Amino acid sequence: MKTGRDYSCEIMALIVLTVLSALSHFWLILIAIGVVAGLAAVGLLIAAILIRVGRQLLARVLNPVPQQDSLPQAAISVDVGPGSRPSLPIA
Fold this sequence. Notes:
The protein has 1 helix and no strands. It has one helix spanning 8-62.
C-alpha cells in the first residue's frame, strides 16, 4: 500500500508563511529604525541647543558688558529719546 501523497501544498504554505513572516518583521524593523533615527535627531537638536546656550553663557561670563553709570531719575530729561529733537535757544 504505497500512496503517492503530494506535499506540494504544505511546502507552498510553508514558503508563503515564511515570506509573510519575513515581511512582517521587515516592517517592524523599519519602524524601529525610524524611531531610533527620530530619537537620535531629537537628541542632536537638544545637544546643539545646549551647546549654543553654554557658549553664550560662557561668553557673557568671560566678556562682561561694562555697566554704565546711570543718572538719577531727576537728571534725565523727558524729551530724551530716539525721536526727540535737540532744543534750540530762542533769540
